[in-house]
Amino acid sequence: MRNILLFDLDQTILNRNASLISFISWQVNFFQLVPQELKDAFIKKFVELDNNGNVWKDIVYSQLIKDFDIKNFTVDELLQSYITDFNKFSIGFDNVQKVISDLYQKGYRIGLVSNGKTPFQEHNFYALGLTQYFSTIVVSEAISLRKPDKKIFAYACNQLNCSPSDCIFIGDNPKADIEGAKNVGMKTIFFHPNQILKPPITDESIHHYDELELAINRINK
Q: What keywords were assigned to this record (predicted)?
């Protein structure tokens, strides 16, 4: 039985898209960055520049300050707010807490393996109130390894004193999560809350956390 569950964070446990929009909306209002009639355009541009978290926010804010002619705040000031305040807007996917709690109670050991900056990602995760269920939290910048590098998955296994064949990896990124985990011998569950046209090669595929335990059980048959 594969009794180790490893989760990605962004768009897997953390609904990053919803969290980001909630944060930007607050930041626009709090700092009065643009008039209200430009707020939607600002949010849309931020999301576009952010590119699903692949562009760090100093670049994003530099462009936004230029595009919206923001004069009262610097890139560093807005970036510091992002680093400090984003976690206050962390939103988990529906039923994530109940499902992970149930799996923990049933004896599964659970870990997190996330690409991103430290301690930024840890703080976003802590805000979801799930740390009591997790035996290890691995963030790429903290160990200078990044998915899909095999070494980051091996590092997580070492932390849990297990082998890749004991693990099921749950994630939303076809390359970093699914391909990366499969390449080290883990089973995989592709989590995609929104239907995509061509899912990756994976052992199971789910849209909602209510489907997760059944997917795990099918893998463990």
A: Hydrolase, Magnesium, Metal-binding
Does residue 164 contact residue 155 with C-beta atoms inside 8 Å?
no
Q: CB count, 10 Å around CB of 17?
A: 17
CB atoms within 10 A of CB 87: 20
- Statement to judge: residues 49 and 82 lie in one domain: yes
Residue partners of 65: CB distance under 8 A and separation at least 6: 73, 74, 75, 78
**Domain shared by 10 and 107, yes or no:** yes
Binned at pLDDT 50, 70 and 90, residue 197 comes out as low
Indicate if 108 and 187 belong to the same structural domain.
yes
Note whether 8 and 112 are same-domain residues. yes
Provide Rg for the chain, Cα atoms.
Answer: 18
Quickly state the pLDDT bin for 1 (edges 50, 70, 90).
confident
